[in-house]
Prior knowledge:
- With 173 residues, the chain is mainly alpha-helical.
- The protein is built from two helices and no strands.
Amino acid sequence: MSQERDITKEIEEFKNENFKRTSQAEENRQKENQAAIQIQSWFRGCKVRAYLSHLHKKATIIQKIWWGFTARAHFRQIVKEAYFIMKMNFYNEMAVRIQCRWRGFFVRKYIHNYCARKRYLEGVCMKNEQVRRELDEFAEFRRRERESLEMVKEQKAKVFQAHRLHHLLSTEQ
Length: 173
């Protein structure tokens, strides 16, 4: 019996200890559950942030490739336009040279006669010299005319002065 009592006592102690442990575990279970949830959410957050960082890096790479592609295409277009403009300027310049040579040839061949033009220019030079001589003569004529008018004016002024002061001639001082 004592053995039975000991076993019952041990069973009771075991039950009590089991109850204590179970109740303590029950109390800690809520805290542990919250801690596990927090750890899991932290871990999931780390995974999501790592995945978002990975996506961000990949998006950056895609954007970089796209912007490089569009920039190269734009640059090719600009170079193509510049080359076209350069060719057109060259062709225009060559066309101007050809037109200049053709017009010069045509004018010299069919429109202007060198000898006739030379005679015309000599005639213009001679006419120019004749007009200059006539202008110089006219200027000289005008100068003499002005001088004679000034002399007449001075004569009139002297006569007028003598007429005004004639009474002073007879008086002695």
